[in-house]
Design goal:
Layout (H helix, E strand, L loop, with lengths): L10 E5 L4 H17 L4 E6 L15 E4 L8 H15 L3 E4 L4 H9 L4 E5 L10 E3 L3 H4 L3 H10 L16 H10 L5 E5 L12 H15 L2 E4 L6 H10 L4 E3 L6 H9 L3 E5 L2 H8 L4 E4 L5 H4 L6 E4 L18 H4 L3 H14 L7
Parallel strand pairs: 1-2, 1-4, 2-3, 4-5, 5-6, 7-8, 7-10, 8-9, 10-11, 11-12
Helix pairs in contact: 1-5, 1-10, 2-3, 6-9, 7-8, 7-13
């Protein structure tokens, strides 16, 4: 394995992953990069949907938005963006995204050292690479990225996930969610419907926990999940603040930072909450809880073994049995246990 020449690295390009949860799981590796090269400028290249997580972020100096549905569409857009990166004169590229496109961009940018996994047929475009073995694939995704950098001597940082909520964002969230304590119910999952638990059961969980622990309720999620939010709101007995589709990604992050507990599917907001240190009850079905569970200590996983899970499919081709098997009572018991363990108390 070729050693990294780290003697004169002043400008680093990081190609981000493309999903919110995956981005959060790269932040420990990004922290190691900052610790190893504290004086270097770290510039993150990211899709529009995840770019706000880095603006601002303590491990990132600048964000360059790579918009394949806008100005960087098609081959011409790729070449144009590669030429723009070339003018930046980066010394090192770290490719968290595993697609060949990331390696093509770094090559077009003439970045002399390019680190990444040998996936998607891109091995010849990387100067420093590792095979993405079955053993690595079985690790938590956070460890994928840390292992890649540690293999080339990039170490340090505290090993934890990190996101930043600014003072203005925190003040805005306090105005939106006054008083407290608050319970966030996150019923969506951008990856696909297979990861989504039953809306009526989310409503039952919210009602029971609000009654038992005196929690205020807020629904969180993206624009594509508004219908789910309306169904849950209509099914609930307790008052609920429905913010699904009404916040930006950074505003949603600030909202989650105000919460005492998050009840959620396996989703991007689940990982955001984990990075903020918020206790989480996560419902898993078609995805692998051993590799994508919340990265921290204060969480509970609720799931059932099924012969067809984890299938990693976006849409269930059969009867959604892995999620149907999870009862509201099981989620309530998990939340009760976690609230009591982390200092919550039942209402008088």
């Amino acid at each position: 394995m070729k050693a990294l020449d780290s003697t004169d690295i002043k400008r680093i390009m990081v190609r981000s992953t493309n999903w919110v949860g995956d981005v959060v799981m790269t932040t420990p590796a990004l922290g190691a990069l900052r610790a190893t090269f504290p004086e270097a400028e770290i510039v993150v290249v990211a899709k529009p949907v995840v770019a706000p997580l880095f603006d601002p972020h303590p491990y990132c100096d600048r964000v360059l938005v790579f918009d394949k549905n806008g100005p960087h569409r098609g081959v011409k857009g790729l070449l144009r963006f590669g030429a723009m990166l070339r003018r930046e004169r980066f010394d090192l590229a770290v490719l968290f995204q595993k697609a060949i496109e990331a390696a093509i961009l770094a090559t077009l940018a003439r970045i002399p050292q390019r680190i990444g996994y040998r996936t998607d047929g891109r091995g010849l475009l990387l100067t420093h690479s590792l095979p993405f073995t079955e053993e690595i694939s079985r690790r938590h995704h956070t460890q994928h990225y840390l292992h890649l950098l540690q293999s080339f001597g990039i170490q340090g940082g505290d090993g934890g996930q990190r996101l930043l909520v600014t003072a203005n964002e925190a003040e805005w969230a306090k105005g939106m969610l006054p008083g407290g304590p608050w319970l966030a119910v996150n019923p969506g999952a951008a990856y696909g419907s297979a990861k989504r638990w039953i809306p009526g059961r989310f409503a039952e969980v919210g009602d029971r926990l609000a009654e038992e622990f005196g929690l205020h309720l807020v629904l969180t999620g993206g624009p594509g999940e508004k219908e789910i939010g309306r169904d849950i709101e209509q099914a609930m007995r307790q008052p609920v603040l429905n913010l699904i589709g009404k916040t930006t990604l950074r505003q949603m992050t600030a909202v989650l930072s105000r919460c005492r507990l998050v009840v959620t599917n396996d989703s991007g907001p689940m990982h955001v909450a984990a990075a903020l240190g918020i206790p989480i009850v996560a419902i898993f079905g078609p995805t692998d809880h051993t590799t994508t569970h919340p990265y921290g200590d204060a969480f509970r996983i609720v799931r059932h073994d099924c012969e067809c899970a984890p299938c990693l499919k976006r849409i269930c081709p059969t009867d959604h049995r892995c999620m149907e098997a999870v009862t509201a009572g099981e989620v309530i018991d998990a939340a009760r246990s976690l609230l009591q363990e982390t200092g919550g108390h039942a209402a008088e």
